[in-house]
Amino acid sequence: MHEMNPAVQGFMYPNEVELQWSVLIVLYPYITGLVAGAFILASLERVFRVEAVKPTYRLALLTALAFLLVAPLPLQLHLGHPERSLEMYLTPHSTSAMAMFGFVYLWYLMVVLLLEIYLDYRADIVRMAGESTGLKRLIYRALTLGSYNMSAASRRIDDRVGYIVTVIGIPSAFLLHGYVGFIFGSIKANPWWSTPLMPIVFLFSAMVSGIAAVLLIYMVTYRLKGLAIEMSCLDTIAKYLFYAFVIDFSLEMLDLIHRIYEADESFKSLDFMVHTHLYVPHIVLQIGLGTIVPLVILALTQIMTLEERWRRRLYVVAASLTLVGIFAMRWNVVIGGQLFSKSFLGYTSYKMEFATREGLLTAIVLMLLPFAILAVLVKLLPPWVSKQQAEA
């Protein structure tokens, strides 16, 4: 086997040489994590009354929707026959974690996210249906769903129901992404994944990535629109990003310490992987640039008094590196978990192709698609909040 494939080192069974899960399966938990994190950030204003983050409330909801619409696409492309995914609805299999994702996805999309966005924007949709012309008028009239009631009582009902939906949406967001970690953590045959902490680590890393993404999108979109960026909003988001990051990093270190202390039969194999095949994505990108550096930057912004322009720059650097680090974490879990044999005697490598169904070009397109959808959403449903509105 070594002579046939130079990328393989040691003994591996034939079905272990070729990786079953590609970069598309890396994108899947990464994108769903952004959805969950963005929604949780939005809930800070709606449920927990953190008024400082109000300028990002609607933007966070639209960001979650844009990424949620793209979330199933990596799985669909990986299937090869995406029409088969309908079988999970036609013949539900309650004991299959993957099959249940379809129902979790529909619940979160149709009942939670779309309903909350509709209730929050309903008054604006009715107003724009009367003010717009042409195609936009038709779109807004369709979005009203036939309801033009703008009375104070109806607005109070919208707000009350929207609050209830957001409360329900918080555990739903946890379920949406926590179950992804559950799938990996329940695969007992792979020691890299088989840990009860996996769902919790995935959940907190999702919060970290989603908050970082909304922070960057808020800064970029408001700058492009020529609107003032509220530093109190940025400072508050950065504070919650720091807190979530500390918890996430602590959980990952707890898992690492437990593995080192336990030192079972797989430890030498995993240790070899970290120091060779996964040194750059795990040590350099995930732990170094993607965790320690942004944590230090965020800590400095919490304890030091810096000018606004320097804080903004540091937030951009910290959030960008955070997104890189979380993606590296997803890569190390999905790809890294497939690079060693079940016998712990052999190792292989992953070669990503470019213009194929599961290649680099496809992955790039899938990562850019949510931003294109978000651009359309913010055009139809403007999320911009002025300083006066934020203080109202």
Any chance you could write out the topology, listing elements then pairs?
Elements: E1 9-10, H1 14-17, H2 23-46, H3 57-70, H4 73-79, H5 87-90, H6 97-131, H7 134-143, H8 152-185, H9 198-225, H10 231-262, H11 267-275, H12 279-303, H13 308-334, E2 346-347, H14 360-380, H15 387-391
Helix pairs in contact: 2-3, 2-4, 2-8, 2-9, 2-13, 2-14, 3-6, 3-9, 3-14, 6-7, 6-8, 8-9, 9-10, 9-13, 10-12, 10-13, 12-13
Task: Summarize, please.
With 392 residues, the chain is mostly helical.
Low-confidence stretches: none
Straight-line N-to-C gap: 69 Å
Number of strands: 2
CATH class of the domain at 22-242 and 353-391: Mainly Alpha
CATH topology of the domain at 22-242 and 353-391: Formate dehydrogenase/DMSO reductase fold
Strand order of the largest sheet: 1-2
What's the gyration radius in Å? 22 Å
> Judging from the principal axes of the Cα atoms, what is the shape?
globular
**Biggest sheet, open or closed, and with what strands and sense?**
2 strands, antiparallel
User: Strand content of the residues, in percent?
Assistant: under 5%
Structural class: mainly alpha
H-E string: EHHHHHHHHHHHHHEHH
- Put simply, the count of helices is 15
Mean pLDDT: 87
Q: Report helical residue fraction.
A: over 70%
The name of the CATH architecture of the domain at 22-242 and 353-391 is: Up-down Bundle
